[in-house]
Every structure is written in C-alpha cells, then in structure tokens.
Amino acid sequence: MKYSFIQFLRRYRFIHLLAMSVVLLLSACSSDTASYVIGVSQCSEDSWRTKLKAELEQSTYFNEGVKLEVRSADDNIEEQRRQIRELADMGVDLLIVSPQQTGNLGDAISYARERNIPVILFDRKSGADNYTAFMGADNYLIGQMLGEYAAGQLGGKGNIVEIGGEHGSSPAIDRHNGFNDAIARYPDMHIIGFAEGDWKQPSGKQAMMHILDSLQMINGNLSNTKLDCVFGGNDRMAFGARQALENYILCHPGNTGLNPGNILYLGVDALPTPGGGIEKVRDGWLTVSAIYPTHGDELMALALNILKGTSYDKETMMETSLVTQANANVLLMQHKEVERQSNYIKRMHTRVDSVLSVVGLQRIVMFIIIFMTAVLACYTVLVVRALRTKHRLNKQLRQKNEELNNEKAVVEHQRDELEEQRDKLLDAVSPTEEPVSVETEVRNQFMDRFLECLDRHIDDSDLSVEDIGEEMGISRVQLYRKVKATTGKTPVEIIREERLRRAKILLVDSSLSISEVAYRVGFSAPSYFTKCYRDYYGKAPSENNKAD
Ligand code: FRU
C-alpha cells in the first residue's frame, strides 16, 4: 500500500512530537553558541592595546552572543597578513584590524572583503580604501595641538627634537605632519633633530641617543646646543628619549649645556593605567600628553551596527584633549572611579555567568523531562490506540463468531432434520420389522459397540450415522434398522440423546462453560445445543451448569 507523505505524517504524528522534543533539547543544550564572532587583528602587543582589548571584552558582557577572536602580530606585517586570512577563513562575521603600516595589508583586507566580511580599520589606516569603516582619533590634529602647545609654552621660539613613530604607520605620518605644519608657522622654532622609533620605550631612547650623537658630530660638543622641546610620537618614546638625555648628561659632565628639567616633553596616548602617560605627566616626567582614546565600547557599537545592518558612519573620529599637570590628577581619579565601576561590572558578569550556567543546567534537565514526557505520551498514545484496535477487532470477531454460530446452528439443525427425513423415508419405503427376536445379549453387544464407537467420536460434530456404520462394518440402512429394532429409536435420536446425556453430566460435574460443554459433546453451535437441551430436558443448560 502506498502512502502519500501527508498520510505518513498523519499516521506518525508521535514521531513529530519526538522530533520536536529532540530539536528543543538540542537547542536548549546549545543555547550559548555565539551569534556573532568578531575577529580582531592587532599589529602589536602593548598597554594601549591591552586596554582596548579589555574594553572590547567588557562590551561583550552587554551584547550577549558576541564572541571575540583576538590575534596579535607582534609588529610583524607578514604575520598580521597571515592572521587576517586565517580569521577570514574561520568565517568570522566581522574583522577589526589595526594595521601595522600603511600600504601592506590591502590584499589581506580584500581577501576578507571578498568573503563578505566587513572590515573596520581601527586606530591606523592601511593605505587602501577597501575597508567598511574607520574609527580612530585625528592624528594630524594631535600633532598640530602639540605643536601649538609647544609654541605657546616657548613663546614661539625654540629648538625641538622629534622622535617619530614607526616608519610607515599612519599615526606616525599624521602626527609628524600635524606637528611640523604647526611649528612651520613659527619662524623661530626649529626642529634640530629627527629619528624614528617603533613606538616602544627603548626605541625612543635609542632614537634620542642617535640624535645627540649626530648633534655632537655637527657641533663638536653640546655645550652650546640649546634644546627646548622633545616631541615623542607617543608617551613611551618621549619618556625613553628623556632617559637617554639624562644618561647622556650624566656621562658627559661639562660637555653639555642641556638641562633636562627645563625641556618640554610632549607625548601621545595619555594612558590612565599604572605607569601610563597620565601618571608620567602628573609626576613631571612628561610635560603634556595628548589623549589617544581606545573606546572599545564605541568600537563594539560600530561593529554591531554594521553586523545588524543599522546605519553607521564610514569615518568616525574620536575626540582628543591634552593632559597637563593641571588636570592629570583629576583624570587619574576619574579613571580610578571608572575602573572601580568596571571591576564591579566584571564581578557582576562573573556572577551572572555562574547563574546562567545553573539556569542552563536546569534548562537541560527541564528539556530532558519534556523529552521523556513526550516519549511517554507517545507511548501511551500508541498503547491506547493498540487497545482500541484490539477492542474493535475483538468486537468484530465476536460478531462474526456469533453469525457463524447461528449459521452453524441452522446447518446443524437442518442436517439433523435431513437425517430424520431420511429415516422417515426409509421407514416409508420399507418399514422396520417388529423388533427381531434376537438374543438380548446379542442386542446388547451390538448397542455396546454402537455406543463405544459414538463415545470415541462424541466431540466430532461432523460424525454421521454413515461414519459409525462404516466403523462398525455395516451400511447406514442396516445400522438404522438394527438400532431401531433394538431400541425403538433412530440412530440420530440415540446419538443426540447420548450427546445430551453426556452434556448434562459435564454441566453438573465440571466447571466447563455451556459452549465448552457443547463442543465437548459434538455440537458445533452452542445455540443449537441449548435448543436441543431445552427440548430434551425441558430446561436450559444454564439451569444445570455448575460454572454459572
Ligand atoms: C600602541 C601605539 C600607541 C600609539 C598607537 C599608534 O600600539 O603604539 O602608543 O599611539 O599605537 O597607532
């Protein structure tokens, strides 16, 4: 039999139930899967980037379902290129890239873009415009602000040494340009030395030593060299430059007219973390630092806007400001307060996490219970359906049985009537002679044989007079005549009476039911048995039945 699919579904509704439970169970177990994976490619590892990473991680607490995949290339452009491709191959939903240098990562970024992965450039530009959005501070403006600050502090007059950031990186270029453009407006301000570092403190030191050496080469010694300002591409390099200067003076007493305490030290970053730029300004190691914000929360918001398809700005410039000794302490106090709050948020997050894991466990248990209940319900439905079917089939069987019994009764009755007709016909054709005067003993022997034969087949409802005759070796007619002559009754009557007599004994003595008794004594239809019994004994078999 062919089922259509719909029929199949209807028939196996319980399978739906089971399948649904399994799906629910699975979804309950896997409810903590991230809905967005954001890849972060950092060009290097340092306190500024550590702060950014911490802010991004904290932002994920408020954006459930966001997972970060962070890679750091440790100032190796090839490694950063490889890591970007790796993150793209992983199938991250969005990439945040802080390129080490400009002009080197365009191909890796295109690789991600070809895979429909949006790319946010953060803090540094790559030189190519195949990015989705950019977020960072205006490094040109930062350079300009610091140039103006120096000019203001020095009355538009003075000598400057510049320690540039990493060669080829966009902030180094922009900060340099901004600073130099500002200084150019003051004819009495001169940059007397320039060297590049790699953003790290030792490189600032190195660059300053290099500059001092070259100045000495030009001037013979530095006793007549005037230095008013050191502009570092970031705080770490500015501080490294100061250390180099102080070492130099220590090692060349009398050889220099320099006094590090009178020099302005300008830096960028102004990190509020321990040992960061703000502390350096507060403690007088740096004169001023321009805030280079991290703002991981805003970066996360931009990423989510892009991912969710809501509107966003292609270029976002973060605000900056100068930190001097006048405001450094206030800023540090504010930062401590913010840090206290964020620690509190972290603690809350840990607690929420543990509560969530308990809830997750409860969820799994709940779904297991639902699943088991569904299985049980399906099983019950199946059992109930099976019982119903059984009940229906039994009913049909009983009806059929009843019909069959009725038919059998009719057939049995007709058969007996037919036998009687035959006997009557036999009597009419050649009436039985008067009982022959045979010896009583011989007659008894004949009837004994007859009754023995009947006894052997008493439960056979198909037993006919012919069958008994055959077994006794005489014809039906002979059998009829002999039985009639001996008993005055026809064999059919004797057979029926014998069956009924046995039946009465069984009904009285055994605990068999009426139907069972009927079958035992060779009636195939209990209803016909009942009729014959009533006709013969004048009462129903049930009146004699012990089982009733
Ligand atoms: C951190 C850093 C900062 C600097 C920025 C420029 O890696 O070196 O000190 O301001 O990168 O991108």
Characterise the protein shown here:
This protein has 19 helices and 12 strands. The two termini are 47 Å apart. The radius of gyration is 56 Å and the shape is rod-shaped. Helix 5 links the parallel strand 3 (94-97) and strand 4. With 548 residues, the chain is an alpha/beta fold. It folds into 3 domains: 34-131 and 294-317, Response regulator (Rossmann fold, 3-Layer(aba) Sandwich), CATH 3.40.50.2300; 139-292, Response regulator (Rossmann fold); 430-543, Arc Repressor Mutant, subunit A, CATH 1.10.10.60. The longest helix is centred in the C-terminal third of the chain and has 105 residues, at 325-429. The strands form 2 sheets. It has a 6-stranded parallel beta sheet, with helices on both faces. The protein has a 6-stranded mixed beta sheet with strand order 7-6-8-9-10-12, with helices on both faces. Bound molecules: beta-D-fructofuranose.
Write the layout of secondary structure elements.
Blueprint: H1 5-11, H2 13-29, E1 36-42, H3 47-62, E2 66-72, H4 77-90, E3 94-97, H5 106-114, E4 119-122, E5 133-137, H6 139-154, E6 157-164, H7 170-183, E7 188-196, H8 201-219, E8 229-232, H9 235-251, E9 264-269, H10 277-282, E10 288-291, H11 296-308, E11 315-318, E12 322-323, H12 325-429, H13 440-456, H14 465-472, H15 476-487, H16 491-509, H17 514-520, H18 526-537, H19 541-544
Parallel strand pairs: 1-2, 1-3, 3-4, 4-5, 5-11, 6-7, 6-8, 8-9, 9-10
Antiparallel strand pairs: 10-12
This protein binds beta-D-fructofuranose.
